[in-house]
């Protein structure tokens, strides 16, 4: 009798939990379809009640819809970009989205405004106009490398892979700037294509981890030897993390030996140095590693992507091409002259991003906090 009672109690508890889950899910579906603040936004009903719709089309590709998840809408109007991403914006970052990236503790993925402000204040001086001008020679050197490589390719009747070329010049600049250790992708026969292939393969893991966060926790708990034995996108995550650890270790070693850090202080030389007057204490190495991942990602993908778009917009529009060519020829009559930044930023076409048209800006999504 006692056994039966114990079984009945267990069954009752289990059944109650199951009923609660089902009822809660039914209510959530009803809420998302009819009561949610985004319920009036058009889009497939399946997308309004589950994240699986977005995950599927993010992995296989497809036509974007307007309401892509229960609490996200997809936007494409460039005029909305500044409203959403401007300083002081009322739109918060999407925590589930940023948590699934491979740079969880970087300033880029930090959720809290105050914590983000502290981290950004440490990085801001290195991306100021003054600092960029001070290190313009680094940019000019690598830009010339890309131009020379392109010219040689054309002279030999070969095609130039500008998709990876733009990413290579961006990576060579940022690694010199951030670590004082240039990767010199532009000097390689493959111009660093292996690195960009690795980076691009990270995309699918982000969507999978966003849908099933427990998989990300499990993956991060795996020993390194097991991660190295894997294939596909997950292996790329561990490769990138190891890559960033190595870069940080090189900077730390440089500082300990009193080497190059004495001649030029880089981003990570600064992040690895306590500054009591500024209230800065060196964070855990994992956080520094995440910052490195975010910075490399910005160079490998965001900056390279922007240059690709700009190039495409110019060469596909004869009027824009002619206008830009005329402005450059007037500003630099000598074709061999250095195109210095101060002069370039004053040119009419180069000073306005809207001149390139709406197709320059990729689609993006906005997550509701409801």
UniProtKB/TrEMBL annotation:
Entries under InterPro entries matching the protein: Cyt_P450, Cyt_P450_sf, Cytochrome_P450_monoxygenase
Keywords: Monooxygenase, Oxidoreductase
Residue intervals passing through the bilayer: none
MF (Gene Ontology): heme binding; iron ion binding; monooxygenase activity; oxidoreductase activity, acting on paired donors, with incorporation or reduction of molecular oxygen
SUPFAM superfamilies: Cytochrome P450 (SSF48264)
CDD domains per the UniProt record, alphabetical: CYP58-like
Database matches in PANTHER family: CYTOCHROME P450, P450, PUTATIVE (EUROFUNG)-RELATED
Protein name as annotated: Cytochrome P450 monooxygenase yanH
């Amino acid at each position: 009798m006692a056994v039966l009672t114990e079984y009945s109690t267990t069954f009752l508890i289990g059944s109650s939990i199951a009923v609660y889950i089902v009822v809660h899910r039914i209510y959530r579906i009803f809420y998302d379809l009819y009561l949610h603040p985004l319920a009036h936004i058009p889009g497939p009903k399946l997308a309004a009640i589950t994240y699986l719709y977005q995950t599927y089309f993010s992995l296989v590709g497809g036509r974007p819809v307007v309401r892509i998840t229960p609490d996200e809408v997809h936007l494409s109007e460039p005029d909305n970009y500044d409203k959403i991403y401007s300083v002081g914006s009322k739109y918060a970052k999407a925590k589930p989205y940023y948590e699934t990236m491979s740079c969880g503790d970087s300033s880029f993925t930090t959720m809290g405004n105050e914590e983000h402000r502290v981290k950004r204040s440490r990085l801001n001086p290195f991306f100021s106009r003054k600092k960029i001008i001070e290190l313009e020679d680094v940019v000019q050197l690598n830009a010339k490398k890309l131009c020379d490589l392109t010219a040689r390719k054309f002279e030999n009747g070969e095609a130039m892979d500008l998709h990876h070329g733009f990413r290579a010049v961006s990576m060579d600049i940022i690694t010199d700037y951030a670590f004082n250790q240039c990767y010199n992708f532009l000097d390689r026969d493959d111009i660093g294509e292996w690195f960009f292939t690795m980076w691009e393969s990270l995309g699918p893991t982000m969507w999978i981890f966003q849908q099933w966060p427990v998989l990300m926790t499990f993956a991060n708990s795996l020993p390194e030897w097991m991660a190295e034995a894997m294939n596909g996108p997950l292996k790329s995550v561990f490769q990138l993390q190891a890559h960033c650890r190595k870069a940080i270790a090189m900077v730390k070693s440089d500082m300990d030996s009193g080497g190059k850090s004495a001649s030029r202080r880089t981003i990570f030389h600064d992040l690895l140095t306590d500054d009591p007057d500024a209230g800065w204490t060196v964070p855990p190495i994992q956080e520094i590693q995440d910052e490195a991942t975010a910075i490399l990602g910005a160079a490998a993908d965001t900056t390279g992507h922007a240059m690709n778009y700009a190039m495409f917009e110019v060469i596909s529009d004869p009027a824009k091409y002619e206008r830009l060519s005329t402005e450059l020829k007037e500003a630099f009559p000598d074709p061999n002259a250095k195109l210095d930044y101060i002069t370039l930023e004053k040119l009419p076409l180069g000073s306005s991003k809207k001149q390139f048209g709406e197709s320059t800006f990729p689609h993006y999504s906005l997550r509701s906090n409801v």
